[in-house]
Design a protein that fits this description.
This protein is mainly α and about 200 residues long. It folds into three domains: about 90 residues, no CATH class; about 40 residues; about 40 residues, no CATH class. The protein is about 30% helix and about 5% strand. It has eight helices and two strands. It has a two-stranded antiparallel sheet. The longest helix is centred in the N-terminal third of the chain and has 15 residues. The radius of gyration is 21 Å and the shape is elongated.
Length: about 200
């Protein structure tokens, strides 16, 4: 009886670990592989509800991939196998990246995150937080220096300083808001080649 209890405990721990044959978006914390900061900090392309069903969890009480945990991915995220360890399959991975990257913990493989940070950045990219990626104070610097930390790889350094410009594109044509748009909504309003106004209203 004791043997069965021990076996059950260790079986659960083994199932929860990241498959050692598939380690993208994972880092070693000194004792085990866990998900990196960029493993699940993007949005799914398909709806979360679809991804939840299409990539069902290995067990009902299993967690989803998140920074710092070692939850087992749905096998369909990366393999045609039926049990871990399982060999990675490029087609399975491509579909997961294109449809449900957050659910599968493969955000780092999307084009938004798959680039190199500047060799000599103005800020230590390893210390960049989600709050910094959303901050108007930091967004332009991070887009230029640490794009892979914030999912800015596709933006070529041109970014909206204010989050949400894309939700109201009519702001691009609103009289009296030209300076605001040219400073804060450059990407949404196609103003990447327009020099932002100088602080204080100078030109």
């Amino acid at each position: 009886m004791l043997f069965l209890v021990v076996l059950a405990v260790f079986g659960v721990q083994t199932d929860a670990r990241i498959d050692p044959q598939y380690l993208p978006c994972a880092v070693h914390n000194g004792s085990a592989y866990v998900y990196s900061r960029t493993a699940a900090n993007c949005l799914n392309v398909m709806s979360d509800a679809y991804c939840e069903i299409a990539y069902s969890k290995p067990t009902p009480d299993e967690s989803r991939p998140a920074e710092g945990n070692d939850a087992q991915r749905s096998l369909m995220c990366y393999t045609l196998g039926y049990a871990t360890p399982a060999p990675a399959n490029a087609d399975a991975e491509s579909v997961a990246v294109a449809s449900c990257p957050k659910t599968c913990g493969v955000c780092c493989l999307t084009s938004a995150y798959k680039c190199n940070n500047r060799v000599a950045p103005r800020v230590n990219c390893a210390t960049v937080s989600k709050a910094m990626c959303l901050s108007p104070i930091w967004r332009q610097i991070l887009a230029e220096d640490c794009p892979a930390e914030c999912g800015f790889c596709d933006l070529n350094g041109c970014i909206d300083l204010v989050v949400g410009c894309e939700n109201d594109p009519m702001i691009c044509y609103t009289a009296g808001l030209e300076d605001f748009v040219n400073t804060n909504c450059r990407r949404t309003c196609n103003k990447c080649n327009v020099q932002p106004p100088c602080p204080g209203g100078g030109r």
